[in-house]
Design a protein that fits this description.
Elements: H1 3-24, H2 27-45, H3 48-55, H4 61-94, H5 96-101, H6 108-135, H7 145-172, H8 176-182, H9 185-188, H10 207-211, H11 215-227, H12 234-259
Helix pairs in contact: 1-6, 2-4, 2-6, 3-4, 4-6, 4-7, 4-8, 4-11, 6-7, 7-8, 7-11, 7-12, 11-12
Length: about 260
């Protein structure tokens, strides 16, 4: 069997393993998924009127739902990938990876199975949160089929980027609890982006912090694709961030995994 065929076969096996784990132990995924859903409901129904008034221009609650939903979809991805860091750390500390190392399998398939499984879970979580947003009033305005396809591609690319970062965090963490803590920035970063309020409404000293981080360009690009707002330089900055994070996470993860740490 060629090296490529072996890698594909072993990666498929590892993917099935990780999906079975997610199905048998859904509590972690569900707990992480509840965070963006609860924030969506909280900011729409508790803070919606106040937040929409702060946006000016006669905006109402429905306008704030439209503003908020794209950012919450990306936050959903960040929440889901925390579970990936925990899962990878469990594999490393419970000895199963040491067992895999003694078997004639492609070394990279272990990580590939985690990444592909996490991306699939992220996409499913985004669909669920999107359905909740649509149920409470979110509507895309005049988005074409090409724009919807571009939005889905951005979400998938963003999920892949954050997943590789989460895998690296899981590999270097001494236990599952530390992995969950190390991955918390993937949930907190959307809170200091343009997800909830425009950057112009933030204090001047804080605007560069919110503007020059990966979530804000992705949020603004997704918002532009679905709502027709101006995308500007975010159109190339968002995929650039994704590709940079993918490369960083991949080489970091492979370096740690192939180095045999832990």
């Amino acid at each position: 069997m060629s090296s490529l065929a072996l890698a594909a076969r072993n990666s498929s096996t590892m993917l099935r393993r990780n999906l079975l784990h997610a199905r048998r132990y859904p509590s972690l995924t569900l707990n992480l998924l509840l965070t963006p859903i609860m924030l969506l409901l909280l900011f729409v129904y508790v803070f919606g009127d106040t937040m929409s008034a702060g946006m000016g221009g006669g905006a109402d609650r429905s306008a704030y739902i439209a503003y908020l939903a794209p950012g919450l979809l990306l936050m959903t991805i960040g929440s889901t990938t925390v579970g990936t860091a925990v899962s990878v750390s469990n594999d490393m500390t419970e000895g199963i990876v040491a067992r895999f190392r003694t078997m004639p399998i492609h070394r990279g398939s272990v990580l590939t199975g985690h990444v592909v499984g996490s991306v699939l879970q992220s996409v499913a979580s985004v669909v669920l949160v999107g359905a909740v947003a649509a149920a409470i009033g979110f509507r895309s305005t005049d988005a074409t089929a090409l724009e919807w396809l571009a939005a889905f591609g951005l979400l998938a690319l963003f999920a892949t980027a954050l997943t590789w970062i989460a895998v690296g965090m899981g590999l270097v963490s001494p236990n599952a609890e530390a992995a969950g803590n190390n991955a918390l920035p993937l949930i907190f970063l959307p809170l200091i982006s343009s997800t909830f309020v425009p950057i112009d409404a933030m204090p001047g000293w804080f605007q560069p912090i919110a503007g020059y981080q990966p979530f804000t360009p992705a949020v603004e690009t997704l918002r532009g694709l679905l709502l027709g707002t101006e995308i500007g330089h975010n159109g190339w900055l968002a995929p650039a961030w994704c590709l940079a994070l993918c490369a960083l996470g991949y080489f970091w993860s492979r370096s740690v995994f192939d180095g045999g740490r832990k």
